[in-house]
Amino acid sequence: KTLIKDGENRVNRLMAPGSRTRVLGFSSGKGGVGKSSVTVGVASALARRGHSVGILDADVYGFSIPRMLGAVRPPSLIGKVMIPPVRFGIKTMSVGYFVADDTPVIWRGPMLHKALEQFLLDVFWGEIDYLCVDLPPGTGDVTLSLAEYLPKIETFVVTTPQDAAERVAQRSALAARKLKLPLRGVIENMSYFRGDDKKRYDIFGKGGGESLAQSLELPLIGTIPIEIALREGGDVGNPIVFASPESEVSVEFMRIAQVI
Ligand code: ADP
To answer: Where on this chain does ATP bind (predicted)?
Structure first.
């Protein structure tokens, strides 16, 4: 059974020439820097700005989008077509909808490839303005497959000041460049913590994102502070951009959504 060749029958037009959907990819050198949180933050801010938005959770082994959005219902099926769960107006698709939380995903390359293909071709994304893709950390098989399917993906490197200083993010950015993924900018996360005294505390160091951006000749698109409400919102499926729109983090995500 060929999956690509019968493209006529498939609902997805994201890859069609002339499609208005912009595809924004979020990558990182390693896990834990807040790549998924940034994906959700930017997607939420775009949605709040009135755009139609989808999130593709391509971090297959470390999926966290369903939890962060509080999306629990699996996609419904109409024939072969998957209808993506919608939360906060955002359409989502994730491996997480198909496996139990405590079950490890041990898919090999071909199966991964096929799952991603279905997420792109068999999901009724519709004519959305933005598809935000939470990429796996590093530059592995999944990213390679996606680059094939989504040649117009615009990639943003998410880093912490510390990660940037240690050049972990740089390695992955250079790998992405080798794969000819268009790199659009750097987003620094966990940039600082604002104390009750209103002072900025540079917990993970300072200026890492800026120097990474300079060495990659990319713009620094934004700096996201550490905020407890962001972590809490992620844990209970209530993204901070909706839960506390006046917070410093939300204001920064809204600004990023405007310039991105
Ligand atoms: P990644 O996708 O890079 O593995 P996550 O987005 O899952 O990282 O973030 C890892 C953890 O750090 C999560 O618990 C998340 O809530 C928390 N986190 C990420 N960014 C921030 C931030 N700016 N402030 C507070 N907590 C954050």
So the answer is: 29-36
Answer yes or no: is 83 within a domain: yes
ipTM for the assembly: 0.99
Domain count, the chain: 1
* Ranges under pLDDT 70 in the chain: 1-17
Q: Is 187 contained in some domain?
A: yes
Q: CA angle, 223 as apex, 153 and 156 as ends, to 5°?
A: 10
Do the domain assignments include residue 84? yes
Cβ-based neighbours of 33, under 8 Å, separated by 6 or more = 137, 158, 159, 160, 163, 169, 189, 190
- What pLDDT is stored for residue 69 in this prediction? 97
Q: How far is the CA of 198 from the centre of ligand 1 (A)?
A: 22
Does the residue 135 lie in any domain? yes
Q: Is 41 in the pocket of ligand 1 (CB under 6 A)?
A: no
